[in-house]
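Minutes, structural biology subgroup

Action item carried over from last meeting: produce the structure token record for Diguanylate phosphodiesterase (Sphingomonas lenta). EB confirmed the sequence was re-checked against the source entry. Recorded below for completeness.
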Amino acid sequence: MGVRNRSRGPPMLMSKITPAVPPAIPMPVVATIEQILRAVREHLRMKVAFVSEFLHGRRHFRHVDADEGTRCIEVGGSDPLEESYCHWVAEGALPGLIRDPAEHPFTAGLPATAALPVGAHLSVPIRLRDGRVYGTFCCFAFQPDQALTDRDLATMEAFAQLAAERIQQDVDADERREAKRALVGAVLRDRAIRMTFQPAFRLDGSGVAFAEALARFRARLYRTPDQWFATAAEVGLGRELEMLAVRTALDGCGVLPPEIPVSINASPDTIVHREFADALGGSALDRLIVEITEHEAVRRYAELNEALAPLRARGLRVAVDDMGAGHSNFRHVLQIRPEIVKLDIGLVRDVDADAAKRALLSALTGFARGIDAELVAEGVETEGELRALKALGIGTAQGFLFGPPVDPWEA
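Output recorded by EB:
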């Protein structure tokens, strides 16, 4: 099938061909693939340089650099693989260096020869760590160029190796992402989540203020709940996992004494979705508290408040946690006006031995009173902390001093 260059060995290693790379080519210390393409294209005086990926029988253009005014191929475009020079170079049917397509009868039948047109052409297969061909690192001109040499092809091979290293990083990242997505997908499929409930107590001795629903995972791979939710968000399954937790928490409410309010956790992205309101049903929500878990700046408070308004009208209360942890949490309080404000655990820990923390908590207590919000201290672990919180006028507390999270039938 056409001309096969049997003298060519495997792609040259970077260490073997470094001397062939002209030192005059300017390159950043850590170059992007686009910068690599431009450096090679300009050095070889080509019109177009690109990196392609072979996928599902087509050649996809992933990175392109072209001379000003040249638009013959663009990122995101594709064409049939067998109509390309790239495919046949990777197959070994065409050499990596073609000075003039007229010298190779096989190229006459390739649509790209006349359509682009292709004159001089250099192409190097990009091989990943596992040996498979990802695609090719190519450049071409519209006219033949008899001045091109094997040294120029060696230059292409050197920079193709650089590009391959960048691509391998992306491939590795994609594979890690898919592995994470599969883990979260298995949790969703198997509903591998259960709810425990940790009570918050009123410090005047009048009993339980509410019980917070906390997710626990039954997956074989151990991760903390925070890690599971962060991973789900990273791979685009954050809302799905949160909604599984919300539904599981609502199911657990039926086991708890009916007079105990229940707090569930949800991010703004979940709350604004119609699925959240649907899960709460159409009945009164006086028993329910939603604790907003977002610690970063909320982009659209108006949308969040719009989603919360009809639920609050039915009795839903809103809590903001980690007050005092950063600027965004203060903004949540000012924009959302929650009924409950939960103090950051860092302010509570050792508060009995830290005058500065007590001064800040005293100010926050006055602030909460001014906006008619209930202040809750999280993470209380010692009797000393409890005494200090009572002295500051904080009326509700939660933490291991009172007991760990338990299954609903034990609450």
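Discussion: Confidence is low (pLDDT under 50) at residues 1-24.
Next step: EB to file the record with the rest of the batch.
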